[in-house]
Write a structure and sequence with these properties.
4 helices, 6 strands, single chain, six-stranded parallel β-sheet
Length: 207
C-alpha cells in the first residue's frame, strides 16, 4: 500500500476541553499530523488522512447521541477521504470499556456499544475505498472523574483497575490512536482494541 502523497491531515472531533482529546491532539501534532479540531462540520477543503472521534465517554462528559453524530460526520467527510490508491484514510473512535457492562454507568455502556456497532458497519461500508475504521475501548484513565466512583451504589463491585503495574493514562490512549492512524496499520479495520491494562479480561461480575 502506497503512502499518501500529501502531509497527513487529521481531524479530531471532541467535546471541548476533555483531557483525553487534548492528549490525542498533542500526540498527533508531535508525530507531524496537521491537526484541525474545527473543520469537521465546515465542509473541509482538501483531502483528509485521518479522523479521530472522541465523544467524551472516558471523561464522563459524553456527547449526546454519539453514534448518530459519528455517522453524520463520516457521511460528510466521505467525499474528502483519501482514496485507496493514495493509501486510504484512517478513522479511529474512542469508546469505553463500559460496553462490557457496568452498573453505575448504563448510559455510557449503551453509547459505547452503539459506537462499536457503528464502527464495524462503517468498516464494512468503507473497506473497498481504502479507509479503515477501528475502535479503542479504554478504561477511564487516571485522573478521570469516573475513577473516583469506587464502589457503585448497592453493589459488591469496585471500579475496575488495570492489571498492569501502571494505571491507564490519557497518554496511553493517545499512543493507541497514533498506532491506528499510522499507514503501517492500514491492514487493520473493523477491530476493537482494549486499552485497559487487562481490565477487559474481567467481566462486570468478577472485578
Amino acid at each position: 500500500m502506497s503512502a499518501p502523497t500529501a502531509a497527513r491531515r487529521t481531524l479530531v472531533l471532541d467535546p471541548a476541553g476533555t483531557a483525553t482529546a487534548s492528549a490525542i491532539t498533542a500526540r498527533l501534532k508531535a508525530a507531524g499530523h496537521d491537526v484541525d479540531t474545527h473543520a469537521v462540520f465546515a465542509n473541509p477543503a482538501g483531502q483528509v488522512d485521518g479522523f479521530v472521534y472522541e465523544p467524551g465517554l472516558l471523561d464522563g462528559t459524553p456527547t449526546p447521541n454519539a453514534a448518530e453524530r459519528l455517522l453524520t460526520v463520516v457521511s460528510r467527510l466521505t467525499p474528502v477521504l483519501r482514496p485507496a490508491e493514495q493509501g486510504g484514510s484512517r478513522i479511529v473512535i474512542v469508546a469505553s470499556r463500559d460496553s462490557l457492562g457496568w452498573p453505575s454507568r448504563p448510559e455510557l455502556a449503551a453509547q459505547s456499544g452503539a459506537l462499536i456497532s457503528a464502527a464495524r458497519s462503517l468498516a464494512l461500508q468503507l473497506g473497498r475505498t481504502g479507509t479503515t475504521v477501528n475502535v479503542i475501548s479504554a478504561l477511564p484513565p487516571e485522573g478521570s472523574r469516573l475513577r473516583a466512583a469506587d464502589r457503585p451504589e448497592n453493589t459488591h463491585l469496585y471500579e475496575p483497575t488495570a492489571l498492569t503495574p501502571q494505571p491507564v493514562t490519557v497518554d496511553d490512549i493517545a499512543e493507541t490512536v497514533a498506532f491506528f492512524l499510522d499507514q503501517r496499520s492500514g491492514y487493520i479495520t473493523g477491530q476493537v482494541l482494549n486499552c485497559c491494562g487487562g481490565a477487559s479480561l474481567l467481566s462486570s461480575l468478577s472485578v
